[in-house]
Amino acid sequence: MRPTIRFYQLTASEFDWKISDQKTVKAWGFDRTLPGPTIKANKGDELVIKVKNNLRESTVIHWHGIRLPSAMDGTDNVQRPIQPGEEFEYRFVVPDSGTFWYHSHQNETEQMERGMYGALIVEDDDDPVVDADRVMMIDDMKLTSGNEFKKGGFIERWKERHDGRQGDTILLNGKEDPLITMHAGQTERWRIINSSSARYVRLYLQGKPFKIIGTDGGLLEHPQQRTEVLLIPGERMDLGVGPFTEGDNFLIESLPYDRMTFVKTKRQQFATVNVGRAKPSVANIAAHLRTIHSLAPQNAAVTREIKFSVGPSWKHGIDFLVNGRVHDDDKPVNVGELQVWEVSNTSLMDHPFHLHGFFFQVIEESGKAPEYKAWKDSYNLKPKSKIKIAWVPDNRPGQSMYHCHILEHHEAGMMSHFEVVDPNKGSSLGHHHHHAMK
Ligand SMILES: [Cu+2]
Fold first, then answer.
1. Which residues, 6+ apart, have CB-to-CB distance to 301 below 8 Å?
2. How far, in Å, from the CA of 412 to the mean position of ligand 1?
């Protein structure tokens, strides 16, 4: 398909949103819908997205997973946040097909909790043929009995800072336990996006097998058959689901996951699936989906060590650190130079690592090669563990960052800025200031 320019307008505002027939919340989101509208493009298209801010506070929109120019990344490090009543035009080409998403990157712990997110789907002529393509954004909210966003007391807020905010109102595409109907005999592509603040989702279809066909950076090489798959906050999994027989019904659930925090993740129900009458299928998910060239062997020499840790703090009792600091500044990387980063987690809890604007390959986890090759931008750091990732900064100089995608940890400082530098041109900025998120 020939590349084209696609125009979108998103308006951020507060609105009443029904999460069920009985429950209405004061959501913040885009175009008065939760999730926000799904943005669609074909690989190579240019997106022009005007964001109007009708909230009473500033915002900024991050395009999670898109390899875009630094200035369009949507953080307060590369642009002035969009003030109430203002508009900002994002403009970038989408060079990769896959399942991406957009979300607030300002006062995230509140703005994302209230619904400031949506999906961004990039299709390609080479995508596997399926009978239906669905986006499923998974989230939770922490509400009072009156369906207000809960603001706890001192102890509860301290625990939220420690664990991340995890509520027990479970949402799929902005609804509690929605009913999904599919046709017998058909195979669908389910694009699952974990947009929650802190919840780890061990997705489970009551034992029915499915195929993982893609993840953060698009298709895998080969479908991977599983009965469960973990999605950390920020992560995406594209699944081939079906075929089923008429009359089948099952739940979309998540199984318990202990990420070594005070809050425990129980088995939870996200949606109910009913399989209706049969329809012919055109689906074809090939055994070979594409080739992913390895950037580096498992034993490649490490070029940088990065440490996620927790440490004592006078002010908070505990600090969330990268390289021993809150809101760290890491060394620049040069365009075109292979990066082999050893990312360690010395703490006793899990942290979802997220790199802005670039994909990496995990080449080693706790001494072993991963189960399959994939392009990732989000990856779980288990307690007391290490991963080795390889990536190459392509020619998009400017400010970037990596951080923990548990939003409360990010806010508490578990993040680092760094600059991508074109060695032929030097630093793109004379200075940069970093900001504690408010
Ligand atoms: Cu964390």
1. 340
2. 9
Share of residues in the chain with pLDDT > 90 (%): 92
Of 396, 404, 438, 394, residue with least CA distance to 328: 404
Going from the Cα of 11 to the center of ligand 1, the distance in angstroms, rounded, reads: 30
Separation between Cα atoms, residue 314 and residue 42, nearest integer Å: 50
Q: What is the DSSP string of 255-291?
A: E-B--SSSS-B--EEEEEEEEEEE-----B--S----
> What token pair was written down for 355?
């790199």
Q: Is the pTM of this model over 0.90?
A: yes
CA of 381 to the centre of ligand 1 (A): 9
Q: Could you read off the pLDDT of 404-418 as tens digits, one per residue? A: 999 999 999 999 999
- Which regions in the chain score pLDDT beneath 50? 430-438
Whether residue 101 contacts residue 216, with contact meaning beta carbons closer than 8 Å, is answered with: no
Residue 407 CA to ligand 1 centre (angstroms): 8
Kindly report, residue by residue over 303-354, the tens digit of the pLDDT: 999 999 999 988 888 999 999 999 999 999 999 999 999 999 999 999 999 9
Ligand 1: centre distance to CA 14 (Å): 28
249-255, strands of its sheet edge to edge: 179-184, 268-278, 249-255, 201-204, 228-231
